[in-house]
Protein backbone atom coordinates (compact mmCIF):
# COMPACT_ATOMS: atom_id res chain seq x y z
CA UNK A 1 0.00 0.00 0.00
CA UNK A 2 1.08 3.52 -0.67
CA UNK A 3 2.47 5.54 2.19
CA UNK A 4 1.44 8.71 0.33
CA UNK A 5 -1.78 10.33 1.47
CA UNK A 6 -4.39 10.50 -1.27
CA UNK A 7 -7.95 11.84 -1.17
CA UNK A 8 -10.91 9.48 -1.00
CA UNK A 9 -14.21 9.48 -2.91
CA UNK A 10 -14.83 11.38 -6.18
CA UNK A 11 -11.52 13.26 -5.89
CA UNK A 12 -9.66 9.95 -5.77
CA UNK A 13 -11.59 8.70 -8.81
CA UNK A 14 -10.62 11.82 -10.73
CA UNK A 15 -6.98 11.28 -9.72
CA UNK A 16 -7.20 7.70 -10.95
CA UNK A 17 -8.71 8.72 -14.29
CA UNK A 18 -5.93 11.24 -14.77
CA UNK A 19 -3.26 8.75 -13.72
CA UNK A 20 -4.62 6.24 -16.24
CA UNK A 21 -4.44 8.84 -19.01
CA UNK A 22 -0.87 9.68 -18.06
CA UNK A 23 0.54 6.16 -17.60
CA UNK A 24 -1.12 4.90 -20.78
CA UNK A 25 -0.07 7.88 -22.88
CA UNK A 26 3.43 8.22 -21.46
CA UNK A 27 6.13 7.48 -24.05
CA UNK A 28 8.32 4.65 -22.77
CA UNK A 29 11.88 3.47 -23.34
CA UNK A 30 12.37 -0.21 -22.55
CA UNK A 31 15.86 -1.27 -21.50
CA UNK A 32 15.11 -4.24 -19.28
CA UNK A 33 12.89 -6.76 -21.02
CA UNK A 34 13.83 -10.40 -21.69
CA UNK A 35 12.66 -12.02 -24.93
CA UNK A 36 11.80 -15.35 -23.32
CA UNK A 37 10.12 -13.64 -20.39
CA UNK A 38 7.98 -11.55 -22.72
CA UNK A 39 6.46 -14.60 -24.45
CA UNK A 40 2.70 -14.62 -23.88
CA UNK A 41 1.38 -17.73 -22.09
CA UNK A 42 -0.92 -18.60 -25.03
CA UNK A 43 2.02 -18.37 -27.41
CA UNK A 44 4.26 -20.58 -25.27
CA UNK A 45 1.47 -23.18 -24.97
CA UNK A 46 0.94 -23.01 -28.75
CA UNK A 47 4.63 -23.51 -29.45
CA UNK A 48 4.78 -26.46 -27.05
CA UNK A 49 1.92 -28.06 -28.96
CA UNK A 50 3.65 -27.34 -32.27
CA UNK A 51 6.84 -29.07 -31.06
CA UNK A 52 4.98 -31.91 -29.33
CA UNK A 53 6.17 -30.97 -25.87
CA UNK A 54 4.15 -31.50 -22.68
CA UNK A 55 4.71 -28.26 -20.77
CA UNK A 56 5.97 -28.68 -17.23
CA UNK A 57 3.71 -31.59 -16.29
CA UNK A 58 0.81 -30.46 -18.48
CA UNK A 59 0.47 -26.77 -17.64
CA UNK A 60 -2.00 -24.70 -19.65
CA UNK A 61 -2.00 -21.01 -20.58
CA UNK A 62 -4.05 -20.36 -17.43
CA UNK A 63 -1.55 -21.77 -14.97
CA UNK A 64 1.77 -21.56 -16.83
CA UNK A 65 2.86 -18.31 -15.22
CA UNK A 66 1.76 -18.47 -11.60
CA UNK A 67 3.61 -15.34 -10.49
CA UNK A 68 2.35 -15.51 -6.95
CA UNK A 69 3.76 -19.01 -6.76
CA UNK A 70 7.41 -18.36 -7.63
CA UNK A 71 9.05 -19.39 -4.37
CA UNK A 72 12.29 -17.64 -5.24
CA UNK A 73 14.42 -16.60 -8.21
CA UNK A 74 15.41 -20.22 -8.90
CA UNK A 75 11.78 -21.29 -9.25
CA UNK A 76 11.10 -18.36 -11.57
CA UNK A 77 14.18 -19.20 -13.66
CA UNK A 78 13.05 -22.82 -13.91
CA UNK A 79 9.73 -21.70 -15.45
CA UNK A 80 11.65 -19.28 -17.71
CA UNK A 81 13.70 -22.23 -18.98
CA UNK A 82 10.52 -24.23 -19.66
CA UNK A 83 9.25 -21.34 -21.82
CA UNK A 84 12.60 -20.89 -23.58
CA UNK A 85 12.83 -24.59 -24.44
CA UNK A 86 9.83 -24.43 -26.80
CA UNK A 87 10.99 -21.34 -28.72
CA UNK A 88 13.03 -23.20 -31.31
CA UNK A 89 12.80 -22.25 -34.96
CA UNK A 90 12.98 -19.03 -36.96
CA UNK A 91 9.18 -18.67 -37.02
CA UNK A 92 8.98 -19.09 -33.24
CA UNK A 93 11.55 -16.35 -32.62
CA UNK A 94 9.82 -14.10 -35.13
CA UNK A 95 6.49 -14.59 -33.39
CA UNK A 96 7.72 -13.99 -29.85
CA UNK A 97 9.76 -10.92 -30.82
CA UNK A 98 6.92 -9.48 -32.91
CA UNK A 99 4.30 -9.97 -30.18
CA UNK A 100 6.63 -8.55 -27.53
CA UNK A 101 7.27 -5.43 -29.58
CA UNK A 102 3.73 -4.83 -30.79
CA UNK A 103 1.11 -5.92 -28.21
CA UNK A 104 3.72 -5.89 -25.45
CA UNK A 105 5.49 -2.71 -26.56
CA UNK A 106 4.07 -0.28 -29.11
CA UNK A 107 0.54 -0.75 -27.68
CA UNK A 108 1.93 0.78 -24.46
CA UNK A 109 3.70 3.63 -26.26
CA UNK A 110 7.11 1.97 -25.98
CA UNK A 111 9.05 3.93 -28.60
CA UNK A 112 12.28 1.99 -28.34
CA UNK A 113 13.37 -1.29 -26.74
CA UNK A 114 16.74 -2.99 -26.19
CA UNK A 115 15.71 -6.66 -25.89
CA UNK A 116 17.66 -9.22 -23.86
CA UNK A 117 18.23 -12.48 -25.73
CA UNK A 118 19.23 -15.60 -23.76
CA UNK A 119 20.80 -18.08 -26.21
CA UNK A 120 21.53 -20.62 -23.43
CA UNK A 121 17.78 -20.64 -22.66
CA UNK A 122 17.11 -22.38 -26.02
CA UNK A 123 19.21 -25.55 -25.78
CA UNK A 124 20.39 -26.88 -29.14
CA UNK A 125 19.25 -23.83 -31.10
CA UNK A 126 21.98 -22.20 -33.23
CA UNK A 127 22.64 -18.53 -32.42
CA UNK A 128 21.97 -17.67 -36.10
CA UNK A 129 18.47 -19.13 -35.90
CA UNK A 130 17.70 -16.90 -32.92
CA UNK A 131 19.07 -13.83 -34.70
CA UNK A 132 17.29 -14.56 -37.99
CA UNK A 133 13.88 -14.94 -36.35
CA UNK A 134 14.18 -12.10 -33.87
CA UNK A 135 15.55 -9.62 -36.41
CA UNK A 136 12.71 -10.43 -38.81
CA UNK A 137 10.23 -9.89 -35.95
CA UNK A 138 11.88 -6.55 -35.10
CA UNK A 139 11.69 -5.38 -38.73
CA UNK A 140 8.02 -6.37 -39.06
CA UNK A 141 7.13 -4.76 -35.72
CA UNK A 142 8.79 -1.51 -36.78
CA UNK A 143 7.05 -1.57 -40.17
CA UNK A 144 3.64 -2.16 -38.54
CA UNK A 145 3.90 0.14 -35.50
CA UNK A 146 7.02 2.31 -35.75
CA UNK A 147 8.66 0.80 -32.64
CA UNK A 148 12.43 0.69 -32.90
CA UNK A 149 14.57 -1.95 -31.21
CA UNK A 150 18.03 -3.41 -30.75
CA UNK A 151 19.46 -6.42 -28.94
CA UNK A 152 21.53 -7.35 -25.89
CA UNK A 153 22.87 -10.90 -25.60
CA UNK A 154 22.53 -12.11 -22.02
CA UNK A 155 25.21 -14.42 -20.63
CA UNK A 156 23.84 -17.00 -18.19
CA UNK A 157 25.73 -16.64 -14.89
CA UNK A 158 24.59 -20.13 -13.82
CA UNK A 159 26.90 -21.42 -16.59
CA UNK A 160 30.68 -21.61 -16.39
CA UNK A 161 32.94 -18.65 -17.14
CA UNK A 162 34.24 -20.62 -20.14
CA UNK A 163 30.70 -21.08 -21.54
CA UNK A 164 30.09 -17.33 -21.16
CA UNK A 165 33.33 -16.52 -23.02
CA UNK A 166 32.38 -18.96 -25.79
CA UNK A 167 29.06 -17.18 -26.21
CA UNK A 168 30.83 -13.82 -26.50
CA UNK A 169 33.03 -15.36 -29.22
CA UNK A 170 29.91 -16.50 -31.07
CA UNK A 171 28.40 -13.02 -30.78
CA UNK A 172 31.59 -11.47 -32.19
CA UNK A 173 31.86 -14.02 -35.03
CA UNK A 174 28.21 -13.39 -35.97
CA UNK A 175 28.26 -9.62 -35.56
CA UNK A 176 25.10 -7.80 -36.67
CA UNK A 177 24.24 -4.12 -36.24
CA UNK A 178 21.30 -4.79 -33.94
CA UNK A 179 23.38 -6.49 -31.24
CA UNK A 180 24.61 -3.47 -29.29
CA UNK A 181 26.07 -5.29 -26.32
CA UNK A 182 25.99 -8.06 -23.75
CA UNK A 183 24.33 -8.55 -20.37
CA UNK A 184 24.60 -10.97 -17.44
CA UNK A 185 21.55 -12.58 -15.87
CA UNK A 186 20.13 -15.60 -14.00
CA UNK A 187 21.31 -16.20 -10.42
CA UNK A 188 23.67 -13.63 -8.93
CA UNK A 189 24.20 -15.92 -5.91
CA UNK A 190 25.55 -18.70 -8.16
CA UNK A 191 27.49 -16.46 -10.52
CA UNK A 192 29.00 -13.35 -8.92
CA UNK A 193 30.06 -10.73 -11.46
CA UNK A 194 33.83 -11.16 -11.08
CA UNK A 195 33.57 -14.74 -12.37
CA UNK A 196 32.86 -13.36 -15.86
CA UNK A 197 35.61 -10.77 -16.22
CA UNK A 198 37.23 -12.50 -19.19
CA UNK A 199 34.01 -12.69 -21.18
CA UNK A 200 33.31 -9.03 -20.47
CA UNK A 201 36.87 -7.97 -21.33
CA UNK A 202 36.60 -9.76 -24.67
CA UNK A 203 33.27 -8.06 -25.36
CA UNK A 204 34.74 -4.67 -24.46
CA UNK A 205 37.71 -5.19 -26.77
CA UNK A 206 35.26 -5.96 -29.56
CA UNK A 207 33.47 -2.65 -28.93
CA UNK A 208 30.31 -4.15 -27.41
CA UNK A 209 28.40 -2.25 -24.73
CA UNK A 210 27.97 -4.02 -21.40
CA UNK A 211 25.41 -4.25 -18.63
CA UNK A 212 24.78 -6.75 -15.81
CA UNK A 213 22.04 -7.72 -13.39
CA UNK A 214 22.49 -7.17 -9.67
CA UNK A 215 19.19 -7.65 -7.91
CA UNK A 216 20.07 -9.25 -4.57
CA UNK A 217 23.84 -8.85 -4.37
CA UNK A 218 25.79 -6.55 -2.06
CA UNK A 219 26.64 -2.99 -3.16
CA UNK A 220 30.24 -3.92 -3.96
CA UNK A 221 28.88 -6.00 -6.86
CA UNK A 222 27.91 -2.67 -8.43
CA UNK A 223 31.54 -1.53 -8.27
CA UNK A 224 32.69 -4.83 -9.77
CA UNK A 225 30.13 -4.46 -12.56
CA UNK A 226 31.36 -0.95 -13.35
CA UNK A 227 35.11 -1.30 -12.81
CA UNK A 228 35.96 -4.91 -13.65
CA UNK A 229 33.25 -5.72 -16.20
CA UNK A 230 33.26 -2.22 -17.74
CA UNK A 231 29.47 -1.91 -17.72
CA UNK A 232 27.83 1.40 -18.58
CA UNK A 233 24.50 0.39 -17.00
CA UNK A 234 23.30 -1.75 -14.09
CA UNK A 235 20.15 -3.90 -14.26
CA UNK A 236 18.13 -3.57 -11.02
CA UNK A 237 21.02 -2.60 -8.69
CA UNK A 238 18.73 -2.04 -5.70
CA UNK A 239 21.40 -2.56 -3.07
CA UNK A 240 23.40 0.42 -4.26
CA UNK A 241 21.56 2.53 -1.70
CA UNK A 242 23.05 0.47 1.13
CA UNK A 243 26.41 2.15 0.47
CA UNK A 244 26.46 5.97 0.48
CA UNK A 245 29.89 6.16 -1.20
CA UNK A 246 28.92 3.92 -4.11
CA UNK A 247 25.61 5.74 -4.40
CA UNK A 248 27.42 9.11 -4.55
CA UNK A 249 29.78 7.81 -7.21
CA UNK A 250 26.91 6.48 -9.34
CA UNK A 251 25.06 9.79 -9.03
CA UNK A 252 28.17 11.72 -10.09
CA UNK A 253 28.88 9.41 -13.03
CA UNK A 254 25.20 9.26 -14.02
CA UNK A 255 25.21 5.46 -14.09
CA UNK A 256 21.77 4.31 -15.26
CA UNK A 257 19.87 1.66 -13.29
CA UNK A 258 17.14 -0.29 -15.09
CA UNK A 259 14.54 -0.93 -12.38
CA UNK A 260 11.53 -3.21 -12.76
CA UNK A 261 8.96 -2.44 -10.03
CA UNK A 262 6.49 -5.31 -10.39
CA UNK A 263 8.91 -8.23 -10.89
CA UNK A 264 11.23 -6.92 -8.20
CA UNK A 265 8.44 -6.48 -5.71
CA UNK A 266 7.26 -10.04 -6.32
CA UNK A 267 10.86 -11.22 -6.04
CA UNK A 268 11.44 -8.95 -3.00
CA UNK A 269 14.69 -7.68 -4.53
CA UNK A 270 13.68 -4.07 -4.15
CA UNK A 271 13.58 -4.77 -0.47
CA UNK A 272 9.91 -4.64 0.28
CA UNK A 273 7.64 -7.19 -1.33
CA UNK A 274 4.81 -5.07 0.03
CA UNK A 275 4.18 -2.72 -2.88
CA UNK A 276 6.03 0.24 -1.38
CA UNK A 277 8.93 0.03 -3.89
CA UNK A 278 11.06 1.50 -1.17
CA UNK A 279 14.46 0.95 -2.72
CA UNK A 280 13.39 2.43 -6.06
CA UNK A 281 12.14 5.48 -4.15
CA UNK A 282 15.46 5.74 -2.28
CA UNK A 283 17.37 5.47 -5.56
CA UNK A 284 15.32 8.22 -7.21
CA UNK A 285 15.52 10.44 -4.12
CA UNK A 286 19.31 9.97 -4.03
CA UNK A 287 19.52 11.41 -7.56
CA UNK A 288 20.40 8.19 -9.40
CA UNK A 289 19.49 7.81 -13.07
CA UNK A 290 16.59 5.35 -12.68
CA UNK A 291 14.76 3.90 -15.67
CA UNK A 292 11.58 1.79 -15.49
CA UNK A 293 10.70 -1.39 -17.37
CA UNK A 294 8.82 -4.65 -16.88
CA UNK A 295 11.50 -7.42 -17.01
CA UNK A 296 9.44 -10.53 -17.92
CA UNK A 297 5.97 -9.00 -18.31
CA UNK A 298 3.52 -11.90 -18.79
CA UNK A 299 5.47 -14.05 -16.36
CA UNK A 300 4.92 -11.43 -13.65
CA UNK A 301 1.41 -10.40 -14.71
CA UNK A 302 2.52 -6.96 -15.79
CA UNK A 303 3.15 -4.80 -18.88
CA UNK A 304 5.02 -1.53 -19.54
CA UNK A 305 2.05 0.63 -18.56
CA UNK A 306 1.37 -1.33 -15.39
CA UNK A 307 4.90 -0.94 -14.05
CA UNK A 308 4.55 2.85 -14.29
CA UNK A 309 1.04 2.63 -12.82
CA UNK A 310 2.10 0.75 -9.67
CA UNK A 311 5.11 2.98 -9.13
CA UNK A 312 3.08 6.16 -9.62
CA UNK A 313 0.44 4.95 -7.16
CA UNK A 314 2.96 3.84 -4.54
CA UNK A 315 5.10 6.98 -4.72
CA UNK A 316 2.39 9.52 -5.52
CA UNK A 317 4.01 10.47 -8.82
CA UNK A 318 2.39 12.50 -11.59
CA UNK A 319 3.37 13.38 -15.14
CA UNK A 320 6.53 15.33 -14.28
CA UNK A 321 8.16 12.55 -12.28
CA UNK A 322 7.10 9.82 -14.71
CA UNK A 323 8.32 11.84 -17.70
CA UNK A 324 11.70 12.28 -15.98
CA UNK A 325 11.98 8.48 -15.70
CA UNK A 326 11.28 8.15 -19.43
CA UNK A 327 13.89 10.80 -20.25
CA UNK A 328 16.38 8.90 -18.05
CA UNK A 329 15.63 5.92 -20.30
CA UNK A 330 16.45 7.95 -23.40
CA UNK A 331 19.78 9.00 -21.86
CA UNK A 332 20.57 5.40 -20.87
CA UNK A 333 20.05 3.83 -24.32
CA UNK A 334 23.02 2.61 -26.30
CA UNK A 335 21.85 4.56 -29.36
CA UNK A 336 24.28 6.93 -31.06
CA UNK A 337 23.94 10.67 -30.40
CA UNK A 338 21.75 11.42 -33.44
CA UNK A 339 19.30 8.58 -32.76
CA UNK A 340 19.20 9.50 -29.09
CA UNK A 341 18.37 13.11 -29.94
CA UNK A 342 15.60 11.98 -32.30
CA UNK A 343 14.17 9.68 -29.62
CA UNK A 344 14.34 12.47 -27.04
CA UNK A 345 12.46 14.82 -29.38
CA UNK A 346 9.71 12.24 -30.01
CA UNK A 347 9.37 11.54 -26.31
CA UNK A 348 9.23 15.25 -25.42
CA UNK A 349 6.51 15.90 -27.99
CA UNK A 350 4.39 13.08 -26.57
CA UNK A 351 4.98 14.25 -23.01
CA UNK A 352 3.98 17.79 -24.02
CA UNK A 353 0.70 16.46 -25.40
CA UNK A 354 -0.03 14.93 -21.99
CA UNK A 355 0.30 18.24 -20.13
CA UNK A 356 -3.11 19.26 -18.76
CA UNK A 357 -3.18 22.46 -20.86
CA UNK A 358 -2.43 20.58 -24.08
CA UNK A 359 -5.67 18.61 -24.10
CA UNK A 360 -7.80 21.29 -25.75
CA UNK A 361 -5.23 21.56 -28.53
CA UNK A 362 -5.63 17.97 -29.73
N1 LIG B 1 16.40 -13.53 -16.53
C1 LIG B 1 15.20 -13.08 -16.86
N2 LIG B 1 14.70 -12.35 -15.87
C2 LIG B 1 15.61 -12.34 -14.89
C3 LIG B 1 15.67 -11.75 -13.63
N3 LIG B 1 14.68 -11.00 -13.17
N4 LIG B 1 16.76 -11.96 -12.90
C4 LIG B 1 17.74 -12.70 -13.36
N5 LIG B 1 17.74 -13.27 -14.54
C5 LIG B 1 16.67 -13.09 -15.31
ZN1 LIG C 1 16.04 -9.02 -15.80
Explain how this protein is built.
The model has no long low-confidence stretch (mean pLDDT 94). The protein contains 14 helices and 8 strands. It is 46% helix and 14% strand. It is of the alpha/beta class and 362 residues long. Strand 3, helix 6 and strand 4 form a beta-alpha-beta unit. It has a single domain (31-361), classed as Metal-dependent hydrolases (TIM Barrel, Alpha-Beta Barrel). It starts with 9 loop residues before the first helix and ends in an 8-residue tail after the last helix.
User: Could you say which structural class the secondary elements and strand pairing correspond to?
Assistant: alpha/beta
Uncertain runs with pLDDT below 50, 5 residues or more?
none
- Average the pLDDT over all residues and give the rounded result: 94
The fraction of residues in strands falls at 5-15%
CATH superfamily: Metal-dependent hydrolases
Rg, Cα atoms, Å: 20 Å
Give the cofactors and ligands.
adenine, zinc ion
How do the strands of the widest beta sheet line up side by side? 1-2-3-4-5-6-7-8
Overall CATH class: Alpha Beta
Features:
single chain; binds adenine; alpha/beta; 362 residues; 8-stranded parallel β-sheet; TIM Barrel; binds zinc ion
Indicate the topology.
Elements (H helix, E strand, L loop, with lengths): L9 H16 L2 E7 L6 H10 L22 H13 L4 H12 L8 E8 L9 H19 L2 E9 L4 H13 L5 E7 L11 H9 L3 E6 L5 H8 L5 E4 L7 H9 L3 E4 L1 H7 L10 H8 L3 E4 L11 H12 L3 H14 L4 H18 L8
Parallel strand pairs: 1-2, 2-3, 3-4, 4-5, 5-6, 6-7, 7-8
Helix pairs in contact: 1-12, 4-5, 6-7, 13-14
The structure holds adenine (ADE) and zinc ion.
Amino acid sequence: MSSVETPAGPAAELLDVDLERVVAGLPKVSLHCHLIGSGEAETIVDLARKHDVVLDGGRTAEDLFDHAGYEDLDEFLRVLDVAGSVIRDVDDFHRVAYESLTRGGAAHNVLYREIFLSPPGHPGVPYRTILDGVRAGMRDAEADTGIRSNLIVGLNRNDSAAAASELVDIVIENRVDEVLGIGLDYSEAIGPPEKFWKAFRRAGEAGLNRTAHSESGPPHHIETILDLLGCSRVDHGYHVVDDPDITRRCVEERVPFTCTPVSSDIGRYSGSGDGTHLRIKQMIDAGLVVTIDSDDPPMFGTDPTHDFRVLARALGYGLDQLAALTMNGVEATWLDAADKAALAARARTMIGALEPGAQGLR
